[in-house]
Specification:
single chain; about 475 residues; alpha+beta; Alpha/beta knot; Trp Operon Repressor, Chain A; 4 domains; six-stranded antiparallel β-sheet; binds adenine
Length: about 475
């Protein structure tokens, strides 16, 4: 990912970025960062970049031309196939958040424009800026510190910027909770002891204590976040009354991406803050029609998929917005915490036995060796691991890739796509077993969405110890 900061004070910005973790990431070429001096684009002997505001008022304003020329120069160096955002840091922007940082980290280039004095001529902002961002309700002397905050928060989300020991564990805002208190040596300092439970070595107890402390701290320090947390927990409790049917909604809450749009005794409507897709649970037919009729337009705007968990919601939804039924599938959920033992020998048609191997597809679309079944003890082949768990995995016997499947960030495992016609069940079973274990390693609950007509897959997963929801879910999509 490339950061371009347009500023009148490039040294200040580069000194900040080149320090510590972001500096290391630049030196290792995991990210690129440049500070572009807007003054270099000012015309005239004195390279003046500011002038008085029309209409009077205190202070000076940065002029449009040098800012525009600096931007155009940066844009001309960004390859056309790159995705880019142009951020103007200003107290008038949207509050910067973890969610925004995640969104920015998905683009190839982030251009950040720093204002100084009283700001920048509005006309150039209108032409170049895509996002207005504020780092808080206070006024700084310039945008440089704000730009450094944005670069830091975005850069640490770029894969490879944080090394393992610093992993983005600090998902302080995950699930709307602040982080629990932490302690290091010595055990007693200023007469204060490290809480006993942290010395116990009992991982479950420690996890429980940390969650309780997080909740307590959030309640005391951030009542706004705590209210959101409570709301999600109440939704979770309702959805957990049917864990299989609502496996997708529960996974969304666990991932920390669920936005609660509606939460009543009889209905829950969640939005995936990443994709904008909606998931809906209704516990009563009464009032269904009115619910869809009265749903605020803003909830439906830009949404291309709604997952319904009750058949009776379909027609009322369709009367409100034009959406077609695209898939009907059952949720199939793996509930134990223990992994499934892998058995990886595969009998070919000529009767010989071959080792099944799981490969992960790399950027070029090829599959590199990922891990071997049979001798897999939960640890995958570190050399072969390409590091992207959202990717697709293939299962092979010898050189032949027999079929592929994948994992998404919710822990959902995709349907098996056979590549070689003759090679069916054993390979599929082996790959799915491997993927279930991978999802468990990530601390998530593995589940599948299997087409209601795919009896073979449903039977196989049941035989493997998974549970099928009693009723299916309905995926509704808009035509666009
Ligand atoms: N520039 C000046 N103050 C700022 C703030 N609070 N956030 C972002 N940019 C700024």
């Amino acid at each position: 990912m490339n950061f371009h900061i347009l500023t009148l004070f490039p040294d200040m910005v580069m000194q900040g970025i080149m320090t510590s973790i972001t500096g290391r990431a630049v030196k290792e070429h995991i990210i690129e960062a440049e500070a572009v001096n807007i003054r270099d684009y000012a015309s005239g002997k004195h390279q003046k970049t500011d002038d008085y505001p029309y209409g009077g008022g205190a202070g000076m304003l940065m002029q449009a031309q040098p800012v525009y020329d600096a931007c155009q120069d940066v844009f001309s160096r960004i390859p056309p196939e790159h995705t880019k955002r142009v951020v103007y840091v200003t107290p008038q922007g949207l509050p910067f958040s973890q969610k925004m940082a995640e969104e920015f980290s998905g683009s190839d280039d982030l251009v950040i424009l720093c204002g100084h004095y009283e700001g920048i001529d509005e006309r150039v902002l209108e032409e170049v800026v895509t996002d207005y961002v504020s780092i808080g309700d206070y006024v700084l002397t310039g945008g440089e510190l704000a730009a450094m905050v944005v670069v830091d928060a975005v850069a640490r989300l770029v894969p490879g910027v944080l090394h393992n020991a610093e992993s983005p564990e600090t998902e302080s805002f995950h699930g709307n909770l602040l982080e629990y208190p932490q302690y290091s040596r010595p055990e007693i300092w200023h007469g204060k002891r490290v809480p006993e439970v942290l010395l116990s070595g009992d991982a479950r107890k420690i996890q429980k204590w940390r969650l309780e402390e997080s909740v307590k701290r959030t309640r005391e320090r951030r009542p706004d976040l705590y209210a959101r947390y409570r709301k999600l927990e109440e939704c979770r409790a309702l959805l957990e009354t049917q864990k299989r049917l609502y496996a997708d909604m529960l996974a969304l809450i666990d991932r920390g991406s669920a936005e609660v749009l509606i939460w009543e005794k009889e209905r829950i409507l969640l939005r995936d803050s990443g994709s904008g897709c909606l998931s809906y649970a209704s516990f009563s037919l009464d009032g269904e029609e009115q619910f869809w009729e009265q749903l605020p337009e803003a909830f439906l705007a830009g949404c291309f998929r709604v997952t319904l968990h009750q058949d009776f919601s379909r027609e009322p939804l369709q009367r409100r917005i034009p959406m077609e039924l695209s898939r009907v599938c059952y949720h199939v959920v793996y509930t134990p915490r223990e992994k499934i033992p892998c058995r990886g020998l595969y009998r070919t048609q000529d009767g010989s036995k071959k080792q099944l191997v799981i490969r992960e597809r790399d950027g070029s679309g090829r599959y590199g060796v990922y891990g071997c079944l049979g001798n897999d003890n939960g640890k995958h082949d570190a050399d072969g691991c390409l590091g992207n768990d959202n990717g697709k995995y293939g299962v092979s016997a010898g050189e032949d890739c027999l079929g592929v499947s994948g994992i998404d960030e919710d822990g959902r495992i995709s349907e098996y796509e056979p590549l070689l016609e003759a090679e069916g069940l054993p390979a599929k079973r082996a790959l799915w077993t491997f993927l279930i274990n991978r999802v468990l390693e990530q601390g998530k609950r593995p589940y599948f969405q299997i087409d209601r007509n795919d009896g073979a897959s449903l039977a196989l997963l049941e035989e493997m110890g998974l549970y099928v929801s009693q009723t299916p879910v309905y995926q509704m999509e808009s035509g666009e």
